[in-house]
Amino acid sequence: MKVLFVSPGWPKGRLWGELGFKFPSLSLAALAAVTPPEWEVGLWDENIEPSPPATDADLVAITAMTPQAPRAYRLAAHFRAAGKTVVMGGFHASNLPDEALQQVDSVVAGEGELIWPELLADFRAGRLQPVYRSGSLIEMTAIPVARRELFGGKKYLFTNTLQTTRGCPFDCEFCSVTAFYGRKYRKRPVDSVLAELEGLRRKNSFAFFVDDNLVADRNYAMELFAGMRGMGFKWLSHAPIDFADDREFIRAAGEAGCVGLFVGFESLNQEALKAMGKVTNSSRSYLEAAKVFRDHGIGILGSFVLGNDHDTPDVFPQLLRFCEKARIEAAIFPILTPYPGTEVRRRLEVEGRILSNAWEDYDMEHVTFTPKGMTVAELQEGYDWLNRSFYSFGSMYKRIWKLHRSVQVFAPMNIGFRAALRRKMKV
Ligand code: SF4
Q1: Is the CB of 173 inside a 6 Å radius of any atom of ligand 1?
Q2: What is the pLDDT of residues 334-364, one digit of tens each?
Q3: Which mutation among 171, 178, 184, 212 tests ligand 1's pocket best, with the greatest number of atoms within 8 A of CB?
Q4: Backbone dihedral angles phi then psi of residue 330, each to the nearest 5 degrees
Q5: Which candidate, 193, 30, 196, places its Cα nearest to that of 112?
Q6: How many Å apart are CA 67 and CA 98, to the nearest integer?
Q7: CATH 3.40.50.280 segments of the chain
Q8: CATH 3.30.1130.10: does it fit domain 2-133?
Q9: Ligand 1 pocket, 168 CB below 6 A?
Q10: Ligand 1 atom closest to Cα of 174?
Q11: Is this prediction's pTM over 0.70?
Q12: Residue 84 C-alpha to ligand 1 middle, in angstroms?
């Protein structure tokens, strides 16, 4: 029997679809790792290889985030027309299984690893069920090493993506992570992470920990950092801004090879942070915290959510000024997006403020709800202006001109974002 794993393309003409650097889907490689050996496994990533392959697979398994869902459904129709059985998982199908079931034969809701072998056995026996939902979350000791050989020969920026923890102890209103993985913070044994890293080690290797918060358990992260010291990896991950408050901790990350962290600043307004449940952030200390990151050789990919109820049109120039003053190396400015399964969607539904369920527009680049402090057009235009301004050469010069070891990552990242934005504007 054969299964083809499918990662649908991001919509073209959108920032994520136009970015030249691509990362592989770790979740599909993880599912491949729990696929019984009698199954032959293939991977098609439309972001890398644009045309659907002619496949002799018996089963097609698609994963999709919400903006990819319309494309996932079109691909499901394509494969079903060719006589394939199609199953779908990922955040979107997990939150809206009934919608997905109108387009595919079966849905995997939530974490897939525990339930996937059962789905395959049912398929072989001709008794595929409409929905597979695991009764429990996987023990982190049971997570097998992802089958990265599936990424071979594909033009990814790099394939050393790995996961050490799942879940987040916090529950921000706009975030889908807790709804999917639960609030319990689960950790893989450090030994097994280090063994996996050892297998990936090459000269000047980069690694990216896809964890939503690598540093939520100090003891665990300190043990990991101690084990990584001297391994020679340059790595990136996610951490909250209050990581800077603990100098010993952030120093250990830098000494373990950390060159960059994705940091959710979300807002410069303390009241807005409180309203969205971002309890790790104090906007008053942002400037100082950013300097602490930089002083430890760690660049910041910041994220600032646009369009929360406290935002007015002044927010766009304010953010640009802050990013330049704080010398934020790179940033994204997602428009608040009411993803299915999130608290913010529930609230905006109650308030009658959802404007669109066109899922391809749930790409954090389009306004899909009625903002409070400005018009839809002001939010959309402010988003475009801020991105253009932040990725202008003048702003890059102000933010990253001083040599610093993370420049090797952030200079190409700025150029990559700038090029993607320009391509997007041309489409
Ligand atoms: S935004 Fe970050 S801190 Fe907040 S719930 Fe999501 S992962 Fe956790």
Answers
A1: no
A2: 999 999 999 999 999 999 999 999 999 999 9
A3: 212
A4: -155, 160
A5: 30
A6: 17
A7: 2-133
A8: no
A9: yes
A10: 1
A11: yes
A12: 37
